[in-house]
Structure formats: C-alpha cells, structure tokens
Specification:
This protein has about 500 residues and is of the alpha/beta class. The chain has 16 helices and 22 strands. The protein starts with a strand and ends in a 9-residue tail after the last helix.
Length: about 500
C-alpha cells in the first residue's frame, strides 16, 4: 500500500514553504524560497503576487521531488499565510492590478487617523474585534481601489477598476485567497483570515455592510468565507496544471491561528506565541469572543465544519524576528545564530534598550507613529550590548502582551507554547521564561504554522480522525523554567516602559 500524506503551503512575509506531513505529524518533505521585499517609499512595504505564486509552485514540486513523493500521494493540501497582506486581481486575466500591500505597510496611517477623528474606532472594535490600524486589510483595499494603475489591467479609464469591482470582475483577497484561487480557481477565504480584514463582523460571521460602505469596497469583489477545516473542501488542483493531479484543498488558516491549531491549543485558556517576523501571542477563549480592555485583539481562532467558531485573544507584536534581521542588515551580526553567543558575552546591556518599532507599535500600545529607538547608549556601548538589548526587546514585548492577556482573561498563565524560527535560540527561550516568569515549552516540530494548516486539511478529509489524535502527536522538545530572581526581572522590565515612551509619536508625515 502506498503511503499517503498531507501537504501545507506556508506563505509567509519573507518566503514561501511547502511541507509534507505523515500521520504522526512528522515532516517528510520541506522546501522554501524567499521573495523580494519591495519598499517604494519609507513606511511602504509590497510583495509581487506573481512571484509568490511562482515560488509556491516551485516549492511544492521541489519538496515532492526531493522526498520522491507523487502528488497522488497527497490526500489534501492546507494553506496558511501572512494574514492582512492584501491584493486585488482581475478576474478575466487572473493578474494582480498592483503589488500586494504587506501587513507591515503604513501608507494608510492618515486614513486611520481620520477614522479616529470620526469616532469610528469603537464601532470598528465592537464589530471586528480589531483596533483601527493600517495593519489590517480594509484601508489597504481602499487604497488599491483608488490608486491601482488601470494600465496594468489593460484598461484605459481610471475609474474602471471601481466599476469592475462593483461587478465582481476585480477580486479582493488576502494571500490565502490568492493561493487557493490559483490552486483551485475558486474565490474563497476562511473565517480566521476574514476576521483580519477589518471588514468582517466576527459576531454575525458575515462581511459588514456598514464597514464596506465606509471603505467603498463592493461586496461583489469579496471571497466566500468558509470554515478553516472544510469537509466540503475549497476545490481541487487541476490535473492538467503544474501538479498534474487532482488534490483537494481543504483547510486554510491565517498563520497565527494555524500555529494555535498546530500547537493543539484546542481548549479555552491554552496559549502559544509564534516568533517570526513579528510575534503573535494567542489564547483560545472558546466560543466566547472576549472583548479586550487592555489593548489586545479579539479574533477568530478557527472553525471546523459543522462546529461553532472558536475565538481567541491576540497580542500582535509587529517586529521581533525582523529585529534580528535588522542587526544583520546593519552588519552588527553576520548570522542570526551569532546572537546568543554575543548576548552571553556581556552580563547585561549596560542600560541600553532597543525598541524595534520599525513599523509602529502593536499590542498593547497601538502607536502607528512610533519608530525604532535605541536609548541608554554611552561611549562604552558595544555591539554586544545592542544585540543583547534587541533580544531582550523580544522578551519585554511578549511580557507586555502576557500581562494584558492575563488581565483580560482572568487566567494566570503557567506555561506558554512557543514556535517559529527564533525559538531555536536557547538564550532567547530562557530569557523569555525569566522575563515573563512562566514555563516556556518548545515542541519537537517547531514549524507549527504549516503543521496547523496540514491538520486542518487532513481532518477535513479524514486523514486524521479527531483532535485527540492530533494532541497525541504533539511532543515536547525542551522546557525552560524561570532562573532569574523575580525582583531582578521586574527591575529590567521597569525601564522598558520608559524606552517605549521615547519611541512614541516620532513619524509625522504619512507614517514615515
């Protein structure tokens, strides 16, 4: 009997990965390709959707080829993605009308401030669970409809894009929708991604007409919203296409919800933190949409076919892993693996604090005009101090969110499951445990984002029977417990708030 597997497309901020998992949840194939980061102006971040699609095809065929797995051995494919990144494309040609606007993009900061002046922040938060912020898709889609170049669509009239959107001939999507569309030909998203658009009412589970009107976004251009794990599937790959097989696409989750699912946080109170470009701390709150009073987001965690939506509280930290990349960009390190050794080479930061607010501050501070700041430097400051302060900033930002999470949920966190590239750094994991005063648990399979998408798809087609089977698969690699004296940790953290204050409100021109 031929072995069968489930595949997952993990389309992230810096690259695209395809992973294949077996019944035990173990990785049997893995391929990755980076894509270009495009910065047309300060504070603007774009991706080329066609490059992303070409890379998606490439990593799928590469992973299968390297592992000698035939596409007919895939029982299903799941998709996970950088969530709020937004694009529009022409339904006739299938071509994007503009580069995708990345979740980090700040070009619509002024529009958000206009919403604040109009008193719409409260209604938006109540309907969507989100803070009004340029991070989310609504203002990005609005900008694209107003500014996309009609020449790229082979159209001549500037108003043609809006007209065609009204007829559903220009389509809106986050990257999951773009990948699913290209894989199956169907225009679909899942509830978790819809909940990140600032257009979707998470209580009514539908696109919100008042918000669509506010942003002048036609309902006709929006994708159908389906469960994250869908027994009816989203469609199948074309047997005449690049894969040369008909494989069901049956699951989709925004990357952070996928990690929650992959970490098997199926019960209320269970939490995970993913350390990627940014860090995203989610706690399952069950079928209750808990409204935050401490600067967190209320979001949809996941939904299985025929079951109620599961909600989550989320703390979105915009820059953590990207701060390590910045150290490399600035030639302070040659390789991210150096950071642990450099940080250990000094006993402290000598009072240096790095606030990596390169794209503003997310939860729980929410300051679009904050910018990256280094404070406390003296003539004796060396790169080792800056590197250590950068790692500490990741731990401090996580504590900010952890304290808000405990205040909102009323649950004292005893342990935190972690995943993502940065958790390979043992120094960071130990530091994180010390600063938040909780156990840190790292799983054997740390690519839990892809695993969560695979689980969602595999459950939908019966590859895995139930959630108990997935929990049985989950295994601990290492646990980190607090080693630092509480008073010392609190003293370190106490100056962090002062450093945050120094970074606030710096950008004064369109978020630049």
């Amino acid at each position: 009997m031929t072995d069968t597997y489930v595949g997952a497309v993990d389309q992230g901020t810096t690259g695209t990965r395809f992973m294949v998992f077996d019944h035990a949840g173990q990785v049997v194939a893995n391929a990755y390709e980076k894509h270009e980061q495009i910065y047309p102006e300060p504070g603007w971040v774009e991706h080329d959707p066609m490059e992303i699609w070409e890379n998606t095809k490439s990593v799928i065929t590469t992973a299968l080829g390297q592992a000698d797995i035939g596409p007919d051995q895939l029982e299903a494919i799941g998709v996970t993605n950088q969530r709020e990144t937004t694009l529009l494309w022409d339904a006739d040609s299938g071509k994007p009308v503009h580069n995708a606007l990345v979740w980090q993009d700040r070009r619509t900061t002024n529009r958000i401030e206009a919403l604040e002046e109009d008193g719409l922040v409260g209604p938006i938060r109540h309907k969507t669970g989100l803070e009004a912020d340029a991070y989310f898709s609504a203002t990005k889609a609005e900008w694209l409809l107003e500014n996309a170049d009609p020449i790229k669509m082979e159209r001549t009239r500037p108003d043609d894009i809006q007209d065609r959107a009204e007829r559903g001939d220009v389509l809106f999507g986050t990257i999951d929708t773009w990948i699913i569309y290209n894989l199956t030909g169907n225009h679909i998203t899942d509830v978790s991604n819809a909940s990140r658009t600032m257009l979707y009412n998470i209580h009514d589970l539908d696109w919100d007409d008042e918000l669509l009107e506010e942003f002048d976004i036609p309902r006709a251009m929006l994708p159908e919203v389906r469960p994250s794990s869908d027994e009816n599937t989203y469609g199948s790959t074309n047997p005449d296409g690049f894969l040369e097989a008909e494989v069901p696409v049956a699951g989709a989750l925004g990357d952070q919800q996928a990690a929650l699912f992959g970490q098997t946080c199926f019960d209320p109170g269970e939490a995970k933190n993913t350390y990627g470009t940014g860090s995203f701390f989610l706690m399952n709150t069950g079928d209750e949409a808990v409204e935050s009073e401490h600067g967190l987001l209320t979001t949809i965690g996941f939904q299985r076919s025929g079951e109620p939506v599961q909600y989550a509280l989320e703390g979105s930290i915009f820059i953590t892993g990207a701060a390590i990349e910045w150290l490399e960009d600035m030639s302070l390190i040659d390789d991210p693996a150096e950071t642990a050794e450099l940080a250990r080479s000094v006993n402290s930061t000598d009072g240096v604090y790095v606030v990596p607010a390169f794209t503003g501050l997310g939860a729980p501070h929410w300051d679009q005009r904050a910018r990256g700041t280094i404070v406390g430097m003296t003539r004796g400051t060396r790169r080792e101090h800056v590197v250590r302060a950068t790692l500490e900033s990741i731990a401090y930002q996580t504590r900010d969110v952890a304290e808000a999470m405990e205040a909102d949920s009323g649950i004292e966190m005893q342990s935190l499951k972690v995943d993502g590239g940065a958790v390979k750094n043992n120094f960071l994991c130990q530091l994180q445990s010390d600063i938040i005063g909780s156990e840190i648990i790292r799983p054997v399979v740390d690519e839990t984002t892809a695993l969560g998408a695979a689980y969602a798809a595999g459950l939908a087609v019966g590859y895995w029977n139930d959630l108990d089977e997935l929990q049985h698969n989950w295994q601990v690699d290492r646990e980190f417990t607090p080693q630092m004296d509480d008073k010392h940790a609190d003293a370190m953290y106490s100056r962090w708030g002062d450093a945050i204050d120094r970074s606030r409100g710096w950008a004064i021109d369109d978020g630049k």
